[in-house]
Here is the input.
Amino acid sequence: MNLWKEILRIAGWKVDISAPRRDKCVICVAPHTSNWDFILGLFAYKSLGREANFLMKEFWFFFPLKYLLKALGGIPVPKKKHGESLTDQVIKMFKDRGYVNLAVTPEGTRSLTDKWHTGFLYIAYGAKVPIQLGYIDYKHKDIIIRDEYNPTGNVEKDMNYIRKFYSLCGDIALYPEKFKA
Here is the structure.
């Protein structure tokens, strides 16, 4: 029995992750208005036997919590090394590891914001990996990752495409008033 799938089914959630299974990709998830987004996304990915990764400050990886965080796909982010940005560190990680499905929320906050972070675009382009576009539809209880985008390296063009993709998703967020594409 798949515990992850069973919990989602009992709670009334459906999973449609039909984007290609990749050893390496960035998973962009928006709108991000609740901590439940992380839990539902994690359960959905695990229900398909896939592992998702997420970045978290190295500070949180202490005994015994580090074992749980790593088991859930957590990747500790060390303090900035001299001359090496987080983006460069993550690109290097993609090159060094055989498997990385890195989930990111471009809004970077659960609060309403106009500014979306672009680091995930630089990471995907620098690591030469696709971006899978996912969202959690609280209205219909669907967790969806169907679409994939290959970044061009033109951050403005790429971000415009991604924001346009998510522009119709505002009313499906758990807190629609906290989302602006």
About this structure: The CA atoms of residues 24 and 100 lie 5 Å apart. Residues 36-47 form the longest helix (12 residues). The chain has a mean pLDDT of 93.
